[in-house]
Amino acid sequence: MGAAVNSRDVAAVGAAVAIALGTLTACSTATPGAPGLPNGSAAGQAGPANTLTPSCPAPPDPAARPPVTVAELNTLVARVDLPGWQSADIGASARLTDGRLVWVFGDTVREAGWRPLVVANSILVSSGRCAAQLVTPTRGPAIPDRADGTVFWPMSLAVIRRPGADVVVVLCARIHRGTSDAFDFTYLGSSAAIFAVGTGAAPQLREVMDLTSDASDAHQVDWGAASVIAGDWLYVYGTRLPPGSFGRALYVARAPVADPQTRAGWRFWDGTRWQSDRALAAPVIEAKGGVSQTLSVDVADGHFLAVSKRDGDLGDFVFTWTAPSPVGPWTPHRGIAAPFEDSSGILRYAPLAHPEIALASGRLLVSISRNTSDFERLLTDPTSGRPVFAEIPWPDRAAATADTAPSGPAGTR
After folding, report:
1. Collapsing DSSP states into helix, strand and coil, what is residue 170?
2. In what order do the strands lie in the sheet with 274-275?
3. Per-residue pLDDT tens for 234-276?
4. With 60 as the cut, is the pLDDT of residue 31 above it?
5. In 54-193, which ranges are continuous DSSP H helix?
6. Of 68, 80, 105, 231, whose CB count within 10 A is highest?
7. What are phi and psi of 119, to 5 degrees?
8. In contact, 251 and 222? CB cutoff 8 Å
9. Which of residues 112 and 35 earns the better pLDDT score?
10. What is the predicted pLDDT for the residue at 263?
């Protein structure tokens, strides 16, 4: 990932995305760590602050940051033993200005003494080989559940580096849980959780804002499935599952970094041009041979790189897609095998790229979420529900086009 974009206000980031998607509701306030956020809410930090435990040393100077191997990373993950983080999926990451890495996770299993035992999201911050868990004043999820029980599953994040404090925007799926099994859940819409992170400090939640209104339509666009800041633009990607499909179609919107809070500046790609009507957005990758619900999109050397399973989370291979622009044309490249379910019952899904972590092999680092439908097994062996790292070759990169290539500092996912 390149240098991050400066000069963006925390409130402007959340409001800009929400206004662009056209459904920002009137917001009320709540304190993070309270029993739940009001529906369609914004939250301002008040009272006790979030903390990080254990205390990790400062990260090494970038020039002295050694490349790592996949084996080393998987050993580190297997050895993590934090009471508030025993297993979790997703694990999107980005590098902060101070050199640390911030990681956002979905459903997280904690030690038996922590209640609730499972929370919908969590955050780790790592420095070198040390990983610290974010602990809220009430030891709840990093992004509190809504008052009606709706939870927030992180999908992607963007880091905006500002003097004194980074702004971390976590784009989330808003989820209603059922009671029958692990697959009984309904996607309701997208939200943005906005954290401020000072040098060496813990992320502090500032706002949670609904980007789209609650809707149980199984075929709506899940905005925020990936996000990236490139040059003068913030790109927000969405995925959609058409009826009868396993793969998902990919959509994209953009806003000018210099003035994201102005609705008139937002545009949605309609297949031919950027225009202002969200309803006219057209896929940049079709559902047949398409992507997972959650994926990663990054900018590498001025080129756009997507990582996902092909044909959805039930697919058996990790693919990369490369494009000269944020809208394509996207060229797929087969990566490595990652069967959705292996002979031992372990599920593998939601691969994500981590180009901010250099590998000694020179290849691209990816993580693959793992889980099991056997909850007792997960409690007995939490490592069965932790992401596993792998490496894939960097795909060929086409030349970026003049009008969509980054023209300024590039930000992180």
Report:
1. strand
2. 222-230, 233-240, 249-256, 267-269, 274-275
3. 899 999 999 999 999 999 999 776 655 555 667 999 999 999 9
4. no
5. 70-79
6. 105
7. -120, 160
8. no
9. 112
10. 58
Task: State the pTM of this model.
Answer: 0.86
Give the pair of three-digit tokens for residue 240.
């959609």
The CATH number given to 10-30+45-59+70-392 is: 2.115.10.20
CA–CA dist 108, 396 (Å, integer): 36
Nearby residues of 141 by Cβ (< 8 Å), 6 or more positions away: 108, 119, 120, 121, 122, 151, 152
| Three-class secondary structure of residue 12 per DSSP | helix
Q: Write b or e for each residue in 368-385: b if 16 or more Cβ atoms lie within 10 A of its Cβ, otherwise e.
A: bbbbbeeeeebbeebebb
Note the pLDDT of residue 404: 37
One-letter amino acid of 328: G
Burial 19-57 (b: 16+ CB within 10 A, else e): bbbebbeebeebbbbbebbbebbbbebeeeebebeeebe
Cα–Cα distance measured from residue 69 to residue 66, given in angstroms and rounded to the nearest whole number: 10
Backbone angles phi, psi at 11, to 5 degrees: -65, -35
The conformation of residue 263, written as its DSSP 8-state character, comes to: G
Structure tokens at 146: 């809504």
The upper half-sphere exposure of residue 178, i.e. CA atoms within 13 Å in the direction of its Cβ, equals: 9
Residues 6+ apart with CB under 8 A from 49: 137, 202, 204
Contacts with 328 (C-beta within 8 Å, 6 or more apart), sequence order: 284, 285
pLDDT in the model for residue 262:
55
* Rg, Å, the chain Cα set: 19
- Residue 51 sits at the vertex; the CA angle it makes with 83 and 112, to the nearest 5 degrees, is 15
Eight-class DSSP state of 285: B
